[in-house]
Design goal:
This protein is an alpha+beta fold. It is built from three helices and 13 strands. Residues 23-126 form the Pyridoxamine 5'-phosphate oxidase N-terminal domain.
Length: 173
């Protein structure tokens, strides 16, 4: 990503934009994200989910019958958000928005790398194996617990960071 550009309309134009490494750390360390997809009729659909920031992109999974998957079949544009503002107040936390196009991951080798990343981050709570071109969740005994989940990566087209004296900072590849 390039150096962040502070939007002077929403913050102190003399502030220093946080380095991209700080933004990536927020994306990597987050435990929960929100994803917004677009329904066929144009309405937004926003839900919380787990995921991993890996190799410069956000990765998530969803069942083929879930609303997210149906939305992505028609329109792959998404916004992914995470942050720490919450109850801490707007001036003490950091919130991140990643905008991009969700691309389905089907290569077994790439899927295994992502399954390993999920396990490293979440442990047994989100332990996946690769079956064909999907994830299957594993039980603590190692057996599959249900149907498959499609895996997607969202390389960022634009990232916005909110909070602190910089207010709003934009990063682009």
């Amino acid at each position: 990503m390039t150096t962040g550009q502070i939007d002077p309309r929403y913050g102190d134009a003399t502030a220093t934009a946080p380095p991209w490494a700080d933004v990536e750390r927020l994306l990597t360390d987050a435990q929960l994200y929100w994803i917004t997809t677009v329904r066929a009729d144009g309405r937004p659909h926003a839900v919380p989910l787990v995921g991993v920031w890996h190799d410069g992109a956000f990765a998530f999974c969803t069942g083929a019958d879930e609303q997210k998957a149906r939305n992505l079949d028609g329109n792959p544009h998404v916004a992914v958000t995470t942050g720490s503002t919450g109850a801490h107040g707007w001036d003490s936390g950091r919130d991140v928005v990643v905008e991009g196009v969700a691309v389905r991951v089907t290569d077994p080798g790439e899927l295994q790398v992502l399954a390993d990343a999920w396990y490293a981050k979440y442990g047994e709570d989100w332990h996946f194996a690769v079956r064909g071109d999907e994830f299957v969740e594993l039980s603590s005994s190692g057996g599959a617990t249900g149907g498959g989940a499609r895996v997607y990566r969202v390389p960022p087209d634009k990232v916005l960071l909110f909070g602190g004296p910089h207010g709003q900072t934009r990063y682009r590849p």
